[in-house]
Amino acid sequence: MKRRSLPVAAAFAAAASLLLTACGGGDDSGKTADKIAGADQDTGAPTKSAEPSGAPAEDKPDGVDVSLPADMNLVFDWGKPKDRNEAAAMSDAANFFRAIYRGVDKRTTEDAALVAYSTGDGLKYAKTQIDARLEGGWTATGTRRHYQATTRSASNGNSVEVAFCVDSSKFYSKEVKTGKVLKGTPSITDFDYFKIIMVKLRTGEGLWQASKVYVEAKAAKCQ
Fold this sequence. Notes:
Elements: H1 7-14, E1 18-19, E2 47-48, E3 72-77, H2 84-106, H3 112-117, H4 120-136, E4 138-153, E5 159-175, E6 181-182, E7 191-200, E8 208-216
């Protein structure tokens, strides 16, 4: 059974706020960026992240557990932007996805990490991802790689767009009851391009939440 043909794959795409059909090639050109969808203000050009690296240890804040089982490996192959807000938003965008898969592992949409790192449409998206796997009786296993990240800030300083590619070719659904791993032949359906609008939580020092999620499925530019 091909992994991406499972019903959860359809739910994954449907849960996004928009399907990006005209986002181009990621805009690494340094030209003036378009206005951030879902943000209040226009922005400057995207800022490339530093050389690829693993997720930094400080991604896990005190009081919020984003730990995952050993067989559920989310790799964030990116470095930190120089801008402090963009670096914090990127770090919490990673935590947003950790929170989703922690919910998948714990079989709940009520985990504290999910509430900490998402709000509004971002929270709805996250719950849809978790619910699809709960309903199908699946968890996840393998390695999900996030890379080619860029960031750009709204001029008000309260919103940051974090954009990146995702390679799920080695990340599989696993039946909870039987432990059977559902693998398939890698294809373009394993590559997605995300844009996450992160907003600064006013009552939380340095905490950013995913407020909107945009997905371009079958993203050839991520291969």
